[in-house]
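A quick aside before the break. I want you to see a complete sequence-to-structure record at least once, exactly as it would be stored in a machine-readable document. Don't worry about memorizing anything.
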Amino acid sequence: MQNKLIIAIFISLFSYSSAINGQSQINSPYSRFNLGTVEPSGSYRSQGMGGVSTAIRDNSSIYFSNPASYSSLDTNSFVFDFGVAYGKNILSSGGSKYSSDDMNFDHLIMGLPLAKGWGLSFGVIPFSNGYYSIIDQVLSTDPGYDPSTGEYTSFHKGTGGFYKVFAGTGIRLTRNFSAGVNMTYLLGSVTRTNYFNFADYYNTFQDNNSEELQLAGINIEYGLQYTASLKNDHFINIGVSLTPDKNYTSRYKQLTYSYNAYGSADTLGYNAEKSKSSNIPATLRTGISFGKINKFTTALDFIYTRWSKSNIPGSAGYMADSRSILFGAEYIPDKYSNYSFLKRMEYRIGGHIGNNYLIINGEQVKELGASAGISIPMKPATGMPMNRSMSKTTLFFDYTKKYGSASGILPTENRFTIGISLNLYDYWFLKRKYD
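That is the input. The structure line, written in tokens, reads:
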């Protein structure tokens, strides 16, 4: 336990620094709007099953989207989960293609019991990514060329993002019902810059426009789960969780100026405002799962966010309500097999479909995707049999497509993500005895 705890502390410090200073640099034009690209969140066990999590309970994994699940943590146990992901984005529009890729920190989550049926969890998870870089060159031979403007190159760049720090607790109220709450702290910023360089550099003014949005604030999330034991170790779980709408403190700055080759500059506009009414809307999650203990799990989630009622500076007219359906399954051939390592592995598959929260040119962006994953048991602590290790290395693969209608007004984005996480499970204050 001591060595694993040292590893956990070291990774925790590294992850917190990465979350503050690091940023995924996967280039997506959909990051130009609102809060950027809202990132999928969840342990890689969840993401390998299409993202389902609302109605799942497990003593070796943490499902922070429903804090009621924390009540399933074993007494005297400690769960630590750290993940990194590699993503590749392929954008196609008008017969041309562009790709970008990056590897970055994804999540850090930890959990431990406070008493039997009462658990605690905390961690750092991504919320949105605002990175993009777009260059457009207009030449005299292009259809959109205007002689009065001349040839020019436009640059559009975005940086930054938002993430959540959370701490929560879940308690079993009765044999079948559990409830939980998360306290989340949302923070971060996105900066967007647009500037134009004209070919006639010495006889024109170059234009530059930039904006910056900062958000910070605390919110409380709520969760409930009902679980029923059926015959032959089968079970059924029903879950619901709510993230209420919240007014966050925000700072929004806009600056527009022009300059020329001789050093002369002219500020055309500047606006800086601080507000406590920047609203991020409520999210409702409902789910159901069915399975057999230590054998298989199937699950279905529905997620609804009322983005049309939000109020975010600089984002008017770009947001619509989002609805998503997530589904997935997990199968374990023989969790405690003495003879086959492959039978002890966990196999997952899933998918997701829904509407994105973005409206561009009057059209709402659509999403669909598929995922798969495995968990590989790690070497157990000294003195424990090989088939009793609860720690594991988890890998998942996800393909997500963002697209518009058949008219082709919106670009099609194909994103491939591969993630690997270290999931440590051990015991607190427990001395093992040997004969």
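Two observations worth writing down. The longest strand covers residues 206-229. Residues 4-20 have pLDDT under 50 and may be disordered. We'll return to this after the break.
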